[in-house]
Amino acid sequence: MQSYTTHILTQLKNGHLSIEEAEEQLKGFTDYGFAKVDDEREFRQGFPEVIFGAGKTAEQILHIFKHLVYKGNTVLATRVDANSAEEVCRQVEGAVYDSSGRTLLYKPEGYELKTEKKIGVICAGTSDIPVAREAEVTIEAMGHRYVSFYDIGVAGIHRLFAQIEEIRKCDVLIVVAGMEGALPSVVGGLVSAPVIAVPTSIGYGAHLNGITSLLSMLNTCASGVTVVNIDNGFGAGYSASLMLRV
Amino acid sequence: MQSYTTHILTQLKNGHLSIEEAEEQLKGFTDYGFAKVDDEREFRQGFPEVIFGAGKTAEQILHIFKHLVYKGNTVLATRVDANSAEEVCRQVEGAVYDSSGRTLLYKPEGYELKTEKKIGVICAGTSDIPVAREAEVTIEAMGHRYVSFYDIGVAGIHRLFAQIEEIRKCDVLIVVAGMEGALPSVVGGLVSAPVIAVPTSIGYGAHLNGITSLLSMLNTCASGVTVVNIDNGFGAGYSASLMLRV
Amino acid sequence: MQSYTTHILTQLKNGHLSIEEAEEQLKGFTDYGFAKVDDEREFRQGFPEVIFGAGKTAEQILHIFKHLVYKGNTVLATRVDANSAEEVCRQVEGAVYDSSGRTLLYKPEGYELKTEKKIGVICAGTSDIPVAREAEVTIEAMGHRYVSFYDIGVAGIHRLFAQIEEIRKCDVLIVVAGMEGALPSVVGGLVSAPVIAVPTSIGYGAHLNGITSLLSMLNTCASGVTVVNIDNGFGAGYSASLMLRV
Amino acid sequence: MQSYTTHILTQLKNGHLSIEEAEEQLKGFTDYGFAKVDDEREFRQGFPEVIFGAGKTAEQILHIFKHLVYKGNTVLATRVDANSAEEVCRQVEGAVYDSSGRTLLYKPEGYELKTEKKIGVICAGTSDIPVAREAEVTIEAMGHRYVSFYDIGVAGIHRLFAQIEEIRKCDVLIVVAGMEGALPSVVGGLVSAPVIAVPTSIGYGAHLNGITSLLSMLNTCASGVTVVNIDNGFGAGYSASLMLRV
Amino acid sequence: MQSYTTHILTQLKNGHLSIEEAEEQLKGFTDYGFAKVDDEREFRQGFPEVIFGAGKTAEQILHIFKHLVYKGNTVLATRVDANSAEEVCRQVEGAVYDSSGRTLLYKPEGYELKTEKKIGVICAGTSDIPVAREAEVTIEAMGHRYVSFYDIGVAGIHRLFAQIEEIRKCDVLIVVAGMEGALPSVVGGLVSAPVIAVPTSIGYGAHLNGITSLLSMLNTCASGVTVVNIDNGFGAGYSASLMLRV
Amino acid sequence: MQSYTTHILTQLKNGHLSIEEAEEQLKGFTDYGFAKVDDEREFRQGFPEVIFGAGKTAEQILHIFKHLVYKGNTVLATRVDANSAEEVCRQVEGAVYDSSGRTLLYKPEGYELKTEKKIGVICAGTSDIPVAREAEVTIEAMGHRYVSFYDIGVAGIHRLFAQIEEIRKCDVLIVVAGMEGALPSVVGGLVSAPVIAVPTSIGYGAHLNGITSLLSMLNTCASGVTVVNIDNGFGAGYSASLMLRV
Amino acid sequence: MQSYTTHILTQLKNGHLSIEEAEEQLKGFTDYGFAKVDDEREFRQGFPEVIFGAGKTAEQILHIFKHLVYKGNTVLATRVDANSAEEVCRQVEGAVYDSSGRTLLYKPEGYELKTEKKIGVICAGTSDIPVAREAEVTIEAMGHRYVSFYDIGVAGIHRLFAQIEEIRKCDVLIVVAGMEGALPSVVGGLVSAPVIAVPTSIGYGAHLNGITSLLSMLNTCASGVTVVNIDNGFGAGYSASLMLRV
Amino acid sequence: MQSYTTHILTQLKNGHLSIEEAEEQLKGFTDYGFAKVDDEREFRQGFPEVIFGAGKTAEQILHIFKHLVYKGNTVLATRVDANSAEEVCRQVEGAVYDSSGRTLLYKPEGYELKTEKKIGVICAGTSDIPVAREAEVTIEAMGHRYVSFYDIGVAGIHRLFAQIEEIRKCDVLIVVAGMEGALPSVVGGLVSAPVIAVPTSIGYGAHLNGITSLLSMLNTCASGVTVVNIDNGFGAGYSASLMLRV
Which of A197, C88, E120, G99, by CA, is between 20 and 30 Å from C211? Predict the structure, then answer.
């Protein structure tokens, strides 16, 4: 991976930037007052800054989204409500909203898949699908492939075994589950790929808005399972994509 | 079931009790100052009072144990440490100590199994065996049969499937598990018998001394699963025995 | 109980299924994309899949409901809001909505009670009735009988004693309570039937949305009490019904 | 109640104190460096400072104990271990140690009961007795009478009803219970006296060292029940004594 | 206090009840299906059943309210929203709604204060007033007097000392506080009357909806303080009233 | 700082107050029934009472606001919603509303900065700005200067290092962060000024509404960091201002 | 990876197993009563069963250890105390105990590294080293290489930057931290490799035995970070090794 | 404050360091394998690294202690047990152990107080003294003065008022309290200096090992109070010292 500094200096040398512009950009971020967009992120981490939409106005999301599009990036925004999404889609051609996962994705010209490897995205129940979708769009944004396995929770475990051979063909697995969160343990015991467990807030009463699923997954008896925050489909998709690149 | 009052009056009529004795016994308990032993329990609930040994001295346990033996009961004491157990066994012929489950059991003459039905006692890992043993001795005390299935947790789920037919032959199932507590959900989805889930304190860190297993089991996606307190093998064995009598 | 595989092969042999249909159905589930309905459930567990309505759209509920009706099952959906219920009732003749317990029940032709045994459904206060109703409709769905004992909490314990003889005639008991959740302990000490305790979210402040009732019930000093999740009337009714079949 | 200032000035006037001594004592406390003993407490609150022994050395306890004896007070120390108690008893004639409740009590000459009223001290189980004892010795220290009702928990509720008439004769009730802590609710619904509920740390697993009993009591459905900290027999005895004086 | 049974039999003897009516009423409650109103409550506990309005419909509240009015009682309902209150006030002449404390109170003819004693109701801040009001109306319902001391929290402790002499004249004290809940400790150290501490849900962040105030009060270093549930003004007023009767 | 008593007596001597007025004011607070405004606060603590707007009506806020303006104070109200703010601004000339921080500030004639020192206000993300704003307006109210450093969280730590020299010039630092709350630890290890950490409720799932950020900050491995309640920008600004005065 | 079944059948064909032996081994586990050792594990997951030593006797550990050595495996046991380790090392030549990480490792003849890739193991403080060691020995057991970076926590962040280039050369990173657990967020923002965060129980007070570090890591603002249980060095080393194989 | 780099270069120029030594030291830390001692700390933060003794061996503590002494620093180690302290004191002349606060302090030649300002260290009860001592020794190490006010908790609030004038003379206040943690709120409302609140683990039952005191202090109604971790006397002393330097 080329360093950000090399990238800017090259642009200066090539005449794409003035000295003033290069100087400004060497800081590595653009300051919009309400936000300092991290321009160096892709060079440091392999993927540009992702917009976390929760708690941002449509205007703020749009502002950052356009900045990133202008820089030529693949742009991903998560936790975007329908109204903000509509605003962005109206102004940015090519932006696509997934209403289940509540993601906005813009793929620049020249976007292509980076490997033949693939990530399996498993979810336990119908209600867990939105979290799975957030993971899947993230994987797509990062240039990777995924295969979906929905509604195969342990209450009817034959649904899992019916697809276990397909699951075993995946290079990394994401397992999304609410309730008692048992599925990552079962899957983790059946495969040799790394498993990322995503607890969801689907449940009631002593489920404690996902804390139960989270605790369950952290205490898995299966080896090879790591965990992300409750409902954090994005984090799972992002980490899984990094694993494909190892 | 004959009522306790009828029982006492019958004994009076038969001359086994004096009027004073009958009057005293109609209260339904014997008052030893530090404890009021519930003599009416068997007539009300189908099994005599069980001694919860934790926090009682060897002397107190022995005192109540002898009272119950004298009344002709099957006597069960749980959570009894080795020292107290030794004391009781020295003084009460026929008392048997299980050092794994830490139970003391005395079976009176004429003890016999009450049905042909049987309870399956499953545990997820080697470390869960003591809790399973507490359940098993309780089942034996109450006059029922059990079959053990040890160390068949979900990390190697073929160990469960290797025995699923035997498990399905049981009339009630007790499933003991620590860690993420996933096993009751998996078993619960495979059988038609009622399942009693027993969380154990086996785990570390975010296991919170069993709270994680407990929460997991309470949020099971399988139908037909009820739960008892952490490490409560006794409670599971007792309830399972009641279910055989329904 | 006949196995699911035998059932399908018999239908093939009888000409009710083509070879292709049988092959498809031997998988044991029907895949609708957003859900994999567990067709094998009744043969494995003794009752068909129950629809958990929370977090599902009216359309999704209706879709699965019709599938199950078409298969000839008794169909139960829980946690169904009034709008979804109206939609289902309009399209499925015979579906009945209970607005207190928020359940939808469809009983196929030939539905009948399976035993003479009965389940007592006790609740502590007026506000606990909806949870009791969910349990009762579940019991009805599974082909069993129940008797209701409402508003007999421990603040006026003579209301319980006024009915204790009727309660003792029940084969299994469900005790629903919020607040301090003391009722299952008191009932558990008076009967010989297994007791299923259902904590409810009725309370305020340090009640923690039902956690207090739940903890209280898990720590009961009475023997023979098992517990389900907060507000889980369905789970209690389901397990109680299984116990009748032991 | 005479004010502390009046008391000191009267002693000055009577010649029992010099001007310097009176000046020093008008501060209302004696400063020993490691502790400032509250000499004004009895005049402000009706009972002298009580020594909380936990975390204090035998030497510190002895020091304060002697100070209070010297001032002519009834002296109470709680949570005193056997070694410290032995030290105090050796040096202070008349000091009495209760090894169950772990209290030290010294009654000065002229100690007498203040009213005919009495406090009922109820406990649910044998293991709760030490907490009940702490309450009882506190009541005695404050010059009041108590009646004990031990081991009458709800698992055998006939033990409670056998004594309910005696209980109803008490002017204030203290109810001590561990496990699910149901007893204060049941008692609270049967009497017209104020009830002070004392949760204990007796239990295991989801009992959380007494938190369950505490939460249960705070959420009681009975009216007229107030609560103190876990294992706080002293606080209950103290408040109950104040209530007798209203 | 006359017993309920004596009361009913006397009415029968006097011809106010038929034999059938007396028989029915000897059960001690009236069964309305959704509720079993505890008619015996006043005779057992000294005050009739109080209606907990939360979670009840206007219709249900009205139904029970009228029943209690008809029986000649002082009637109190708590946690009643404005709509339900309007409905009751329209139909029951003499019912008065307190919109701050959200209580409904009906005082029958002949209502009068029972003692000259009085209860001090202290609150720490302006936002705690509604909880104080619930306590005050409860005290009034039970026939006792109260004095209000509002907004005298520890941030400006001179406001407390400005009124301490008035506070010391009260026979029982209720101290209502949110935030860190320090006020009951400070008051408890200054008076000789029993103190009932009421934590409120006023606060934010780590206040945890009142848990912080509750924990603080349970751990008070002052003697003579007991605690009720968060926002439970009713419970405090009720217990304080009982204390006046000791 | 002149004492409040001296202040009042001086006004009396100067003829600005009558004897009656002086007598009333020597109490140190003004009693409006629903609130006792602490007039002595500025003399005791160096800044007048601040209005906590949450849970107060527009009318109540306005009432106290006017009282404080009338007394000639700088007046600050926090957690004021837009409607209440509009009401106050309409009636009090010079009152200014900050819609981000939700503060109302009125600066009297003669307001001026008290020192050349300055407070750095750092926040980790865009969504933390409102809390930072509450701190900044508080600092302004107390007569001090601040410098803002927004959106420089650890995910792009070069944004922090780009400004570290400016940050090191501040005399006190406030660091506002949600999510994992790591920023105060990093800043704390780089500077010699005292750091006040403010956790925010920005996050989801296992963030527990700010508890995670709070716990993180309390456990910082950096020296010189103290912490305030979740979202408590006011508290941080207030304490930071006091530190400038040391 | 060859399947376990193929492996057994090949051995049968080759005459290394009798038909009876093959039949027995096709079950996939060896039943020792107290444990069912999962012989199929390596074929299913790529690494043989690892012995979790906590709660097992020296005898049990030794029994399973020998079984795995006999099968020709690399054998790893974690959480082994010094006494058990001594026993195993005496009886199994080649077993090596790491007293810091409390691991036992046996490498069979022919053990060799599987790739040139390497895992960076970072820890924040000296006290976190034992957890880092558990991870490192696990990595070694699985045939991979690691580089250690100890004591580079954020309180002196120049220690991290001094080694960042070496850290960036690693293919996967494990970051171990107690206290506020900030290090994974800082590292996660600086690298493009996947990061596994391991919270430790190092801390006190509000650290809650590691819960604070855990929550902090789950809420990281950096992308590409997944988390394992508190003190779970093994889990991190295992997952990191799997990632190298993707 | 001179920068660390300038310091090293000056020493090089002066001939106190060779080029190799200077190069090594410009890294800013000394690497001992088990620890990287932060040599730059004093230049960056104004005080050298402090040794946190918990979890370190006597040997490790001694090693780092000597390093810091050798560098000419004031050296402070906290949470040092008696055995480790003895070892250090034997080998390092001038090291002084405080057995109450469990601190080791070494003051180099030329140590002197830095200002005339002083810090008040207040504690609520006798058992809180060790935490106060940790704060006091830290203040001394950093070159500042403190005044102690012990055992002046709110249960006898006249003890606080007896010293309030002395307290008001302090420039910064540290308030240490366990139980309900009310003292910082009361003090905070009476003074104009910044207050640092230190919760302690002194209490029982619902005190939750200090969590109650911590929560209470975080929710203080007084302005100007910030909080540190439970029992963190060091942190309070350190921050208070920084405040004196503002």
Answer: A197
**pTM above 0.80?**
yes
Please, how many CA atoms are within 13 Å of residue E60, restricted to the half-sphere of its CB? 18
- State the sign of the Cα–Cα–Cα–Cα dihedral E77, E81, E82, E86: negative
* Structure token pair of residue B161: 């499937």
**Low-confidence residues in chain E, pLDDT < 50:** none
Q: What is the pLDDT of residues A26-84, one digit of tens each?
A: 999 999 999 999 999 999 999 999 999 998 999 999 999 999 999 999 999 999 999 99
Which of D41, D117, D173, D242 is best to mutate for the E interface (most E CBs within 10 A)?
A: D242
pLDDT digits (tens, 9 = 90+) for C12-69: 999 999 999 998 899 999 999 999 999 999 999 999 999 999 989 999 999 999 999 9
Of C155, C159, C157, C151, give the one whose Cα is nearest residue C175.
C151
**What SS3 class is residue D224?**
coil
Which CATH number is correct for B118-245, 3.40.190.10, 2.60.40.3550, 3.40.50.1970, 3.40.50.720?
3.40.50.1970
DSSP state of G221: S
Cα–Cα dist A47/E4, whole Å: 78
Nearest to B202 among G34, G55, G229 (CB): G55
Cβ(C226)–Cβ(C196) below 8 Å: yes
- Cβ distance F226 to H218 less than 8 Å, yes or no, reads no
Question: In degrees to the nearest 10, what's the CA dihedral of H133, H137, H143, H145?
Answer: 20
Where are chain G's structural domains? 4-106, 118-245
The strand order across the sheet containing D75-78 reads: D51-52, D75-78, D103-106, D95-98
Long-range contacts of E110-115 (CB under 8 A, 24+ apart): E111/E74, E111/E143, E112/E143, E113/E143, E113/E144, E113/E145, E114/E142, E114/E143, E114/E144, E114/E244, E114/E245, E115/E144, E115/E145, E115/E244, E115/E245
Residue F1's pLDDT is 59
Condensed to tens digits (0 to 9), the pLDDT of residues A84-116 reads 999 999 999 999 999 999 999 999 999 999 999
What are B156-212's pLDDT values in tens digits?
Answer: 999 999 999 999 999 999 999 999 999 999 999 999 999 999 999 999 999 999 999
Contacts of G13 (CB under 8 A, 6+ apart): none
Q: Chains F, H: CB contacts under 8 A, how many?
A: 100
Question: Residue E239: closest CA among chain D residues belongs to which residue?
Answer: D224
CB < 8 Å from F in window 27-46 of A: 27-29, 33-36, 38, 40-41
Q: How far is CA G62 from CA B100, B124, B129, B156, G58, in A?
A: 20, 20, 18, 21, 6
Q: Which of F51, F58, F57 is nearest to F86 (CA)?
A: F58
- Percent helix, strand and coil across chain G, each to the nearest 5: 45, 20, 40
| Structure tokens, A130 | 């939105």
- With CB atoms and an 8 Å threshold, state whether F55 touches E127: yes
Statement: residue D1 has pLDDT above 70: no
Residue A31 pairs with which residues in a beta bridge?
Answer: A36
**CB G176, CB G132: distance < 8 Å:** yes
Residues in a beta bridge with C120? C147, C173
| Cross-chain Cβ contact F38/E150 below 8 Å | no
Per DSSP, the residues of B69-107 read HHTT--EEEES--HHHHHHHHHHSTTEEEETTTTEEEE-
> Which of helix, strand or coil describes residue H199?
strand
Q: What is the spatial distance between Cα H130 and Cα E195, in angstroms, rounded to a whole number?
A: 32
- One-letter amino acid of B42: E
F165: which 2 tokens?
């020299």
Interchain CB contacts (distance < 8 Å): E and H: 110
